[in-house]
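Batch manifest, entry 17 of 40.
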Amino acid sequence: MERIINLSMLGDKIKALKTAGLIKPSLAARKSGRSRDILHRLENGGDISVAALLDILNASGLAINIVPKGFPTQEDVRAIIHDSDEPDETR
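Output type: C-alpha cells
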C-alpha cells in the first residue's frame, strides 16, 4: 500500500483510480453533491477541503486509511516476507 504524503501524490492516485474506472467523475460529482471542478482540482494536486475529499471518495465507494508515516503496514511486511521467501535466481 502506497503512502500519500502530499497533494501531488494524492492527485496522481486519484488520476490512477479514474483511469482504472474506480472513480467516474460525473457519477462521483452527482452522488457527492460536489462539482466536477473539485475533482479536477484534486487530480491536479490542488487544495480542496477534507469534507469534499471524503464526499468524493465516499460517492466512489472508497475510503482513507490513516497509518503512521514512518512504519510499514501489515501488508508491507507480508510483501517483504513473501519476497524474501522466494529463491533468488541471480545467485
